[in-house]
Amino acid sequence: MKRKQNPFSRRQFMKTTSVGALAASQIIPAYAFGMHNNGQPGKLAALGGTPVRSNKNWPKWPYTDQNVIDSVMETTKSGIWCRIQSATGTVPTFEKRWAEMNGVKHAVATGSGTQALHTAVEALGIGPGDEVITSPYTDPGTIASILSARALPVLADIDRFSFQLDPDDVEQRITKNTKVLMPVHMCGQPAHMERFMEIAKKHNLYVIEDACQAHFARYQGKQLGTFGNLGCFSHQSSKVLACGEGGSIIGDDDELMDRCYTVQNHGTSRRGRTETIGPKYRMNEFEGAVLMGQLPTVMERHVLRNKNARYLTSRIKDIPGIRPQKLYDGTEEGSFYLYTMNYDKKAYNGAGRDKYLKALAAEGIKLSPYIKNGLHREPWVDNIIGRRVYQQMYGKQRLKQFKDEMVCPNCDVVCDEEMVMLWASGPLLGTQKDMDDIINALTKVYENRDQLNNV
Question: Which CATH number fits domain 10-60+298-371+414-454: 3.40.50.1000, 3.40.50.720, 3.30.70.660, 3.90.1150.10?
Answer without folding.
Answer: 3.90.1150.10
